[in-house]
Structure formats: structure tokens, C-alpha cells
Design brief:
about 375 residues; mainly beta; nine-stranded mixed beta sheet; about 0% helix; globular
Length: about 375
């Protein structure tokens, strides 16, 4: 996802190649081209900046926390991870807190995230690190040069402060160091304690997602319990050919035993810069049929994705719609009669890098 004349190809979109259809024409409820009742897009204190790659937690009382990627200095393209707290008003609208920095690149260092850190995903659980227990775990993408990305881990006992990044990356890329690498992580709690599902993108000679089950009970000694490619069966591109997963976020509905995934559609548009960002995103689902949570996501399980909705310019009013997140509870669960997606839009043409903002779109759930 990053490179910036091509605006953070490290974190916006992989240098992908090009089967739930991206041409369904399903509709939902958008926040529209302007600030709606959800309070989006955020009021932004910097003149030249971007907001994208969200991860959204909704607590039981309706309070929301949105982690996302932005700049710390106006006009300087360097990814930092910020958070805003959304307080729900009586009428259901949201009032958002100020932009709060929660994780920054470790500048002028030998760390893997010295240049950019982005693509945050946060879940709740019980995690031990250096003898102290923490309630929250963040996975993110870090790099030193916009390529050879790696997946990092951070912990905190509070959502908006106190985040501590582990010194070494959790996932590294073993291929050509000039390749995009690994990143775009998403997390889902398997047991609401220390076992976690981790899904991340691999970008090299081909592009695909991997699903792994980890025991993070002791982060000084994390244990990978399983690993497989994520199934792409059933995904169809905008042109009707085979498609792949990128910029994914996952959620699980315990009542229906469904996994939901929001991801970008391909191929990317050719009607103007940015060419590397998708025009559509889709929400797909499959039912968990295995005893071990997450096993049905694996390619070896042979299961197919089903389409819930495809969303593009006709629905949002924007030419680029990408890098999405599903509104989930602190453990990565969803429920109810709709899936709400926070997506990153942008304009096209000169100065597009400073137009990335986060909007919301609601999609009805069907049986």
C-alpha cells in the first residue's frame, strides 16, 4: 500500500496484479458529500493532510474509537496513527474528539517502522508483555522506505494513549526486498483473551491474503498456531474475471456464524490520478463451518465468498473508494440488521493526495 507520488502505495493500495462480484450495483445509506449526522469527515486542523485506512471499535454504549492514518505536519507525507473518540448523542449522531496521536514512526532509528506506520487494527483481549498485562492489541504496517513492509504489534491498557510498539516486527517478508512486502493487517479475537486471528496482505510476485491463528497470551513468546492463504473462491472483478483480496477488514457475527470481509475491487480505474486506488469496495461473507474459528477462511477449506454489496462512485459520489473498515465491537464482532463500513475516499487530479477523507456507508444484511 505505499509510494507517494503515488500517495503511500504502502498503505493505500498494493502494486497489485489483477472472483463475489464487484458489479452487483447494491445500494446502502451513505453519509453523502458533506458532513452528515455521523460527524464525518472529521474536522481537520492541518491544511494539507489526509485521513485514511480506518479501524473502528464500537463499545456497548455506542461510543466509538476510530484509529486511522494521517500526517503530523501539514504538507509532509509521513504516516502516523491517530485516534478519535466518538461520543453518541441522544439523536444517534456523533461528536468526535480532537485528533490524537497514538503511534508514530520511530524516526532516525534502525527500527522497521522508522519511516511510515499505518493500517492500524485494534482489538481487546488479555496480553502479557514484559511482565505487564494489557487490554488492547494493535497490528499495523511499518516500513523504512515505502517497500519491504512488515507487520508490527503494539499494546496498551488504554485506547487513546500509552501505546507501546514491540521492538521487532511480528511478520516479515522473505522475498525480494524491493517488493511491497507484508502489511494491511486486520485482527479478530478468537477467545476474547489471548488467541487472535490475524489476516494480512502479501505483495510480491503475486498478491494474496494470509490468515493465521496466534496465541498472544505472552507477547515475549508469541506462538503461531496455524497459517494458510485466505480463500478467493467466488470473487469476481469489475470486468467479470477472477479477483483477489486487498485492503481487507474482517468481522464475525456469532449469531449467524458468518465472517464478513470488506475489501477493494479490481482492476483499478484509468480515468485519472490516482490510478493505484480502487473505485469500488465490496462486502462479502461466508459461514463458519469448522469447530476452530477462522478455519473456513482458509483456502484449504474450499469455501466460496458470497456477495452482500458492491459500493462505488454511484453510491458514494466519489471517484475513489478504498481502504475500508467494518464497525465492530472491541473483539471484532458484529450483529444486527446492517453492516456499517468506514471507507477512504479521494478526489482525482492535481492535489489528490490531500483529499483523502473518511466517510461511512451502511449496508443492509440479508439472510
Amino acid at each position: 500500500m505505499k509510494n507517494i507520488r503515488r500517495f503511500l502505495l504502502c498503505l493505500l493500495s498494493l502494486p497489485f496484479m489483477v472472483s463475489v462480484s464487484c458489479g452487483d450495483g447494491n445500494t446502502g445509506v451513505s453519509s453523502g458529500d458533506g458532513k452528515g449526522e455521523d460527524g464525518l469527515p472529521f474536522d481537520e486542523p492541518l491544511e494539507q493532510t489526509f485521513n485514511y485506512c480506518p479501524s473502528v471499535i464500537e463499545e456497548e454504549d455506542g461510543t466509538r474509537y476510530v484509529f486511522y492514518c494521517s500526517t503530523a505536519v501539514s504538507g509532509v507525507i509521513q504516516d502516523h496513527i491517530f485516534c478519535r473518540k466518538g461520543t453518541r448523542r441522544e439523536n444517534g449522531s456523533y461528536e468526535w474528539s480532537e485528533k490524537t496521536l497514538v503511534l508514530a514512526p520511530r524516526y532516525f532509528s534502525e527500527y522497521f517502522d522508522a519511516f511510515h506506520c499505518c493500517d492500524p487494527c485494534v482489538i481487546k483481549g488479555d496480553f502479557l508483555y514484559n511482565g505487564q498485562r494489557y487490554r488492547y492489541l494493535m497490528a499495523y504496517t511499518g516500513n523504512t522506505s515505502s517497500v519491504n513492509n512488515k507487520v508490527g504489534i503494539a499494546v496498551s491498557d488504554s485506547l487513546m494513549e500509552g501505546w507501546i510498539a514491540l521492538e521487532e516486527p511480528l511478520i516479515t517478508y522473505s522475498g525480494d526486498p524491493s517488493h511491497w512486502g507484508v502489511g494491511q493487517p486486520t485482527l479478530l479475537s478468537a477467545d476474547k483473551k489471548g488467541e487472535v486471528l490475524l489476516v494480512y496482505s502479501v505483495g510480491g510476485n503475486s498478491t494474496y491474503n494470509v490468515v493465521e491463528r496466534w496465541d498472544f497470551s505472552d507477547l515475549n513468546d508469541p506462538v503461531r498456531l496455524s497459517s494458510d492463504k485466505v480463500t478467493e473462491k467466488g470473487l469476481t472483478s469489475l470486468n467479470g474475471g477472477l479477483d483477489y483480496l486487498s485492503n481487507t477488514d474482517i468481522a464475525f457475527d456469532e449469531k449467524t456464524s458468518r465472517f464478513y470481509v470488506v475489501s477493494d475491487c479490481h482492476p483499478n480505474p484509468t480515468d485519472g490520478e490516482p490510478f493505484f486506488v480502487g473505485s469500488h469496495f465490496r462486502v462479502t461473507y461466508l459461514s463458519e463451518k469448522e469447530e476452530t474459528l477462522g478455519a473456513s477462511l482458509a483456502q484449504s477449506g474450499g469455501r466460496s465468498w458470497m456477495s452482500l454489496a458492491t459500493v462505488g462512485p454511484a453510491e458514494t459520489g466519489f471517484p475513489r473508494n478504498s481502504n475500508c473498515a467494518i464497525v465492530r465491537d472491541p473483539y471484532g464482532r458484529v450483529g444486527g440488521d446492517e453492516i456499517e463500513v468506514f471507507y477512504s475516499m479521494s478526489r482525482t487530479g492535481d492535489g489528490y493526495a490531500w483529499t483523502y477523507r473518511i466517510y461511512a456507508y451502511k449496508i443492509p444484511v440479508r439472510e
